[in-house]
Amino acid sequence: MKKQNNGNACENLRNEVLEILERFQEGYTKRDISVVDSYMGELFNKDDVIIIGTSIGEWCLDYDDSKELVQSDWEYWGDVSINADSAIVSDCGDCVWVTVEADIKYQFGTDEAKYDRFIDFVKSYFDDNNANSRFSDQYKIAHINWVLTQVFWNRKDGERTYLWPLRISAVLRRFKGRLLFTEMQFCLPPANEIYPDVRLNFDESMTNDVREGKEKITEYINKTGHKCCGDIESMFNEFKEDYLNTSIGANDIIRQYFTNDENHCVIGYDLKAYQDRDAIAALIEEQRKKWLSMKIEAENTILRVYEATASLAAWGILGNNANKDNAMKMLLAEMKMLLNKETKASDKLFQIQRSIALMFRETAQHRQLDYCFKLEALLVKDKDHWKFSKLQFSFPFYYFFEGMYSVPEIE
Q: Does the domain made of 11-110+154-322+369-394 have the CATH classification 3.10.450.50?
């Protein structure tokens, strides 16, 4: 991939945004909940703000919910650290878009109480009064095996610390001379991009979380009128049909749906920023190998139109290409890739074991592999036609295990 383009913002605007990010970082470093009100008032637009978190139901679609998320992060989340040098800052006319790499520090420990909790988890599959007992025997065994693979990743005594990758993206607009956040999104990468965390109609708890997120979006649209309609709806409907259509060239997708400048950027599920046309085309081709279909309903799409720009946030479903016939082949290809990674032999073996367990779990239910994803975009008027300037794909986060990411333990 070519060297990162840091965006088209002039030096003064970039420095202004970096100062805002510094202030944002300060709050997440100090974690002083007594100042959360003044912090939010200084950085966020109180009249209309959205924060999309990492989990399924974290659609914070007003100021109070957004403040609650920030306060919850300070109280319970890991330590967030922003890499300001990685910031891409784009001047889009009536708004500013920024995306920045970050990491979050997570700590894990091992004690008998932890294992007792997982004993209870396994017992739940044999309890007739528990929803888990309703799964097929094949799925019960496959899921328990996958969970225990994660649990026994590290059995060392003491506390262990890791830095997990994170990306934060945001839209800012100027109010009375001050730039304020109007939208923000936190993203973690999927532990496995072929089989992401949140599968549609997978289990009762997950289904309830999915329903909660969708209901929040529908309620927000009904309350504010920020629904996808008009010329943008027409363009977006065509985009959804064409994006994964292999009969349409990836470069044709870029020409038809993206701005004709060097200011566009696509954030992939891997959290990497793809900016030049060749990189974006390669990303589209790679996504087409893994996904058969993209479905996003109008009632699950928030559209906020400004003047010459518009922001879009949507919840959708991706149909996986990993059916029973080719799941084994995809797994073998992944195993071959893992064997060639430059990492410790023990890490390679765990990652292979984890991928095998995950594949058997996902194919054990004999259903269509449909996964939830989030899509955010910034559109601009390009010769009277709406085009994507920024586009971001992400998968919601659900499971929380020590060995999810191939990152080294830190001191």
A: yes
